[in-house]
Amino acid sequence: MITILFSNKYFTMSSLFKKYLMALTGIVLIGFVFVHMLGNLQILLGQESINAYAHALQISLCPFSGAHEFSSSPALFCMPSPPSC
Question: How does pLDDT run across 50-65, given as a tens digit for each residue?
């Protein structure tokens, strides 16, 4: 269905397509801001909560860094967390 919509050059040039694209972009950006706001508000829950959130971000972002493809040193956020005492 998506290829049908994008294959019609008149639809992709129309103002209706531009409005749909603008709405989709706005929804994605509002979602991005909302998710990051919730993550940053975890600082109010205490040190353990924000550390767990930071660790989850390190784990989830590591495959997307691309640092392992270009150099032998890992990206900063791909480094293992220090052992707890």
Answer: 898 888 888 876 666 5
